[in-house]
């Protein structure tokens, strides 16, 4: 296996005042900066230190500094300890953490996660020593190799850490970073830039080509720049690096043809290479073209709509005139191509309705182009925070279908994903679709704020800003969390300092995952649900009508009506092919949803209009179907991994699962 770069991560939150260290204090011209020391002499089997400095020009509550030793061929190096600067430790951090981890396999060979958190005050503007890292090298450390100490993200999420500073308002941003190094600088090599010598197009066509840069020094970051016509996009990267050139030409571009663009690659050490590309634009004649911003607009009555209408003509001497017929005002001064007109319409509440405007461009020679825009002026809907999954300004059955398409088919996920948790139980299942149908059709309870364990800030992510938000709420009279279940990360039905330590330990020490909270739970409801009985039985298999087809009936025994059932059925794709399931006479009036993943089939049974239910009693609800690939297929490898039985009020009913004739196989 190929070795990975050696990575350690330093993540600290603190309160202190930094002294001057060669960086200007409170200088608006210098951005927040993290700088790592270069150590040029690093012998084998020896100890040495490396210093990390920080400059900040605003108050901070925390930060994270991940580092990577970018030389996978030189990894015989070990961290002994990290000593925080005296000005840091003198502030008595309320919580400190450090974790050193060695792996023989995996994406990261060696990692170090260290941190400190203060529960009050903030880091003031200043600069100075942040920490000293003590290392030692082993006997195989190569003293001749150069190792760049760069900053990178430390994965996998959700414990991922990136280079960022966090303000006292729980807002994170990335500072400037000055890389460090170990060992002697390498002998630099000149980068090489490859580009086409010339490109020929007709006016109106788009020029597209690639520029490729390479460098023998694999750790050098290559930056490609362009001087001349057209657009050029590239992201600085190590060798090889590619830039993409594009230029949509017009007839005006024939007047100064040919064009010569200059491309330069810089490897960051001062070495460069240059290529010249000649672009020849030949004349080509077209009718005028009208460019409308959209085919239609939907606006709320009372809002003002503004947009531009553009027209082009390959004939550079033609005068283009754009006119409009319909609602709104339109200003335009006739000119040669390209030309632009400006549309504006300040609607009022009485404008609710549908309107069509026509736009025409005339090039003065009798040639024209026409386009139309439809305006839908709608009433302002009532505001809604939760339940509007498709973001159309209203909560209706379209949102229910949106969630079902995500759960069982290839529909887009809610954004953020946690917003699909409509009943606030920290899970996204068919229960949420029934819950939303109850709200829309039967006047049930409104959608609740979603629950994502650890998402105290309620932005759909679990990271360092959640700790700062929690501190501000718990200790500094900040705003309360929107979801208490998201904040009760240890699941003891209380919000207190224990949850803060639990969340910080998870983020900085690799502690246990946050769990779904119960701070908003209803013990009486749970007690009532426990009185209901529900059983699911996996019946004996039978041979289908076609060869190699195996059918497994699934039965339920319940003492109350069910609105929906969700099953996750595991199977071995090497021995069997899963087929569409079949509803029984007991469920024929409901709708079947299913999707097949790598090694399981997700099945849902529900009437989202809540007109039909699974009546109390016992009997089959559906039949699972599989096609055996060979004689190695064993029915016992079919497993019911998850079962959700949902009553008419969108509550999940406790259920026991049995295999026919073999007793209980799973208790939920």
What does this entry show, briefly?
With 668 residues, the chain is mainly β. Helix 2 packs antiparallel against helix 3 (430-441) and helix 4 (464-475) packs antiparallel against helix 6.
Describe this structure as you would to a colleague:
This protein has four domains: 177 residues, Immunoglobulin-like, CATH 2.60.40.680; 91 residues, Immunoglobulins (Immunoglobulin-like, Sandwich), CATH 2.60.40.10; 90 residues, Sandwich (Immunoglobulin-like); 139 residues, Immunoglobulin-like (Sandwich). The protein has 668 residues and is mainly β. It starts with 5 loop residues before the first strand and ends with a strand. The protein is built from seven helices and 44 strands.
């Amino acid at each position: 296996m190929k070795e990975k770069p050696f990575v350690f991560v330093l993540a600290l939150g603190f309160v202190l005042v930094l002294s001057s260290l060669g960086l200007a204090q409170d200088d608006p011209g210098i951005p927040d900066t993290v700088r790592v020391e270069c150590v040029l002499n690093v012998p084998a089997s020896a100890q040495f230190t490396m210093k990390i400095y920080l400059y900040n020009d605003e108050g901070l509550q925390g930060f994270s500094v991940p580092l990577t030793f970018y030389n996978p061929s030189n990894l015989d190096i070990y961290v002994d300890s990290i000593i925080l600067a005296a000005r840091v430790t003198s502030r008595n951090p309320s919580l400190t953490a450090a974790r050193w981890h060695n792996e023989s396999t995996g994406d990261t060979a060696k990692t170090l996660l260290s941190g400190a958190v203060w529960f009050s005050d903030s880091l003031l503007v200043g600069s100075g020593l942040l920490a000293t890292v003590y290392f030692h090298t082993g006997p195989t450390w190569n003293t001749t190799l150069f190792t760049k100490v760069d900053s990178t993200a430390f994965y996998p999420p959700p414990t991922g850490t990136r280079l960022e500073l966090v303000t006292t308002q729980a807002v994170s941003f990335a500072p400037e970073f000055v890389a460090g190094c170990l060992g002697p600088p390498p002998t630099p090599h000149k980068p090489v830039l490859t580009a086409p010598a010339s490109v020929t197009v007709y006016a109106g066509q788009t020029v597209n080509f690639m520029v490729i840069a390479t460098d023998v020094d694999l750790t050098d970051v290559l930056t490609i720049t362009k001087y001349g016509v057209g657009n050029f996009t590239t992201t600085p990267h190590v060798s090889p690096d590619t830039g993409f050139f594009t230029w949509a030409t017009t007839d005006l571009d024939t007047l100064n043809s040919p064009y010569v663009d200059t491309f330069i690659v810089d490897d960051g050490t001062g070495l460069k290479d240059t290529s010249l590309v000649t672009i020849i634009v030949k004349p080509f004649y077209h009718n005028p073209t009208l460019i409308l911003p959209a085919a239609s607009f939907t606006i709320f009555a009372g809002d003002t709509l503004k947009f531009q209408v553009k027209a082009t003509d390959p004939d550079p001497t033609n005068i283009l005139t754009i006119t409009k017929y319909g609602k709104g005002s339109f200003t335009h001064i006739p000119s040669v191509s390209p030309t632009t007109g400006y549309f504006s319409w300040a609607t009022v509440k009485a404008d609710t309705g549908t309107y069509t405007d026509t736009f025409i461009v005339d090039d003065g020679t009798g040639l024209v182009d026409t386009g139309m825009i439809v305006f839908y002026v709608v009433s302002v809907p009532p505001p809604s925070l939760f339940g509007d999954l498709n973001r159309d300004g209203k909560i209706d059955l379209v949102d229910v279908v949106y969630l079902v398409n995500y759960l069982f088919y290839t529909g887009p996920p809610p954004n953020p994903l946690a917003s699909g948790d409509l009943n606030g139980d920290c899970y996204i299942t068919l229960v949420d679709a029934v819950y939303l149908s109850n709200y829309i059709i039967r006047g049930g309870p409104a959608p609740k704020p979603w629950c994502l364990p650890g998402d105290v800030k309620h932005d759909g992510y679990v990271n360092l800003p959640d700790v700062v938000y929690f501190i501000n709420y718990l200790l500094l009279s900040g705003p309360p969390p929107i979801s208490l279940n998201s904040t009760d990360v240890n699941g003891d039905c209380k919000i207190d300092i224990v949850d803060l330590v639990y969340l910080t330990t998870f983020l900085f020490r690799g502690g246990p995952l946050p769990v779904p909270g119960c701070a908003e739970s209803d013990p009486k409801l749970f007690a009532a649900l426990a009185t209901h009985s529900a059983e699911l039985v996996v019946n004996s298999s039978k041979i289908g009508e076609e060869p190699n087809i195996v059918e497994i009936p699934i039965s339920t025994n319940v003492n109350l009506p069910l609105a929906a059932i969700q099953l996750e059925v595991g199977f071995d794709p090497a021995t069997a092919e899963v087929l569409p399931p079949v509803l029984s006479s007991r469920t024929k009036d409901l709708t079947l949803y299913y999707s097949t993943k790598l090694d399981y089939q997700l099945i849902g049974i529900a009437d989202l209009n809540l007109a039909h239910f699974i009546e109390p009693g016992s009997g089959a609800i559906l039949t699972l179907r599989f096609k055996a690939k060979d004689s190695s297929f064993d029915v016992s490898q079919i497993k019911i991994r998850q079962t959700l039985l949902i009553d008419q009020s969108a509550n999940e009913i406790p259920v026991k699962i049995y295999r026919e004739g073999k007793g209980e196989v799973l208790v939920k």
